[in-house]
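Good morning C.,

I know you're traveling, so I'll keep this short. The sequence:
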Amino acid sequence: MSISGSKTYASRDGVCLCDWDNDARNDYARLVSDPRVMAFISDGKPRSFEQAAGEVDAFNLELQTRGWSRWAVRREETGEFLGYSGFAQKEYGINFGQRFFPKLWRSRAPMAAAHLALEYGFLKLGFDQIHTLTNLNHTMAIRLNRNYLGVDDDYGVVCDTSFGPHLRIDVTRAMFLSGLQRNRQRIFARAVSAAGQDATPDFSPPATLA
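The tokens, ready to paste straight into the viewer:
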């Protein structure tokens, strides 16, 4: 499966995880130049086009060499760029992170993309554990992470970083699987009910992961 030359790794309910095509630099640069998007990321400063282009090149290199990274998230029908979701190798292991344009923050797209990425990581790539690392001031993201996992409000470990204290939430494969069906139903139920089909996402990995 592909969208305008992009390679699609996973898709469901009109949302797909893709590699970064020729338009990716402009798409990603628009995202990370928005102060609202970057408010709780690293030093909180918007990034330049040059910085964005370098990150996109790094994402694509990781996808080509190891089969996972941060993916571009697009609408399946139109190819519209919505944001990114996926993984990066960090100090505490495999980190999950994502960012979307502010107009989408209250839509279903971010949760759909997050779930697709986590299914791909745990079920296709065989990850044993991943983590999120969130600025303590980003209370909405922390609340959403805990709600998705079905854990207590005090779950997580505060870590000192060069950008201030962050909350690390570790997610094991067992934790993810325990909430798999519940989260599939919560995120995809309306579309599944209307279509009368299973909520299992379509994984269409490149040949190197087959």
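Safe travels,
E.
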